[in-house]
Every structure is written in C-alpha cells, then in structure tokens.
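Input record (one chain):
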Amino acid sequence: MKYAKRMMVMLLAGACLVPATVQASSADVFADVGKIAAAEQILSKMHLPGIGKPVRHDKAARKQRKEEKKKQAQLLKAYHKYDFQSVQQWAAANDPEAMFIMAYAYKTGQELPRDKEKAVEWYEKAADVNEELADIYQSSAYTKKTLPLPRLYALAGRRAHLGLAVPQSYDSAVRWSQLGAREGDSAAMAYIGSAYYTGRGLPRDDKQAIEYFRKTPHEPLSVSLLADAYKKGRGVQKNPQKGEEYATFLRMAKDKMTDKYGKGVL
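The corresponding structure, as predicted from the sequence alone:
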C-alpha cells in the first residue's frame, strides 16, 4: 500500500514499556503513546517514597550534580550519532523497525535533513516488509506530533518484548531499549531495569535494576516493580509497607488517568 493511502490509517499504537512479567494486574498500564507523558506528569506530582538514603543538598552535592549533567549532555551528543548509525545499519539489513525509523527521521529532520521523498521511499520499503508495523507508524500517535527518536527506540523495544507487529524477542527488546536508555529516554531506562529485574534479555541483577528504577521514579513500570522489590526484599531492604505505598501510588495514578480520559486505562 502506498504512502498516501497509509496516511489515512489511524490505528492506535502501543507505547508504554510495561512487560507482562511481574505484577500482571499492572502489566499493561498506560499502554498507548498519548498516555505516557500524562502518566509521567501525574506521577511526578505525587510524593513517591524515597529510595535509599537522601542526598544532602549541600554545595558539594549541587556541584557534583551540575558536573554530572554536563557530562551527561556530552554523552548524549555522542550517543545520538552512534545510536543512529546503528539504526542505519539495521535498516540496510532490512530490519522493518529500523527502516520505519529512517523514514521518520527524514520526515521530521532528526539526525537527517528533512527529505519528503526519501521518507516516502523508506516508508514504502518498510511497508513491503511489515504492513502491520506500517499501520502503527501512520497512526495518530505518531503523526499528530513529533516524537524524539529515543522514544521511538523505546517503543520499538516494547513491541519486541510483547511481540506486537514484530516477532517476540527479548534480545531485540533490550537492543532497542538500550539505544533509548543511553540517550536518556525514561521509558527505555525503566525497561532496561525491568530486564535486569526479570532476567529477560539481560542477566538477572536486582541491584542494577534498582539503579535504573532510581533514575526513573515517575515511570509506571519503575513504580510497579519497586513495589514488588520492597515487598520481596529484592535489591533493597525488605519493607512491605513501603512496597504497598508504591502500589498505592500506582493505583492512584491509574484512577487519575481514568478520570482524565473518561475510560479505563489499558
């Protein structure tokens, strides 16, 4: 199907990186693109329980945080180039997800000059390989506003984890999510934490998982797995009460999302 026709397809796309692993009741929470930012915003306004010892807000700590932010900015600049080169290589090898991201990059001018013709060319090549994925990339979730490439990497990781429109593969899920995580995408970072926590795609490492959850405290996936971690004492000192607090915050956020959208949260 040609690009012009694909533009008419408005199927909803899955978005939040919530693997069907720990705590099945919250495994599909906040599952479309439009709800990711809303979920993060809602959770960011809630006073979540702290993780570990608080950092002293003294002069030395502020200086350290400033230096870390500067270093992170430098790393992100390098990662953008490196990660996109990987995407280009995968696209050349006919990976449909990478091919669609190439089309999106040309369409939006991210990492590549805007070029409508090349965007159409890559889109049509990718659609020939995977029509179901083509519908997702032409849904309103991807066309109403520009999504940053790191978020696309995160979404690609989620699809690979769940087997949505692509073959299920934990290795592919981690590969895509690592790209997004290196560039600071919070959903991708939370997913990498979950991979360490569940041992799906990465060797199980509870302490590594907690470090990623610590960096993304307002991601629904992080909150859900932190609740589990505190209840079971995995990577943190066992504290069932704190675990229940995290679970309560997630339920409260779900209620707010339900009110916001006037329907149940996926």
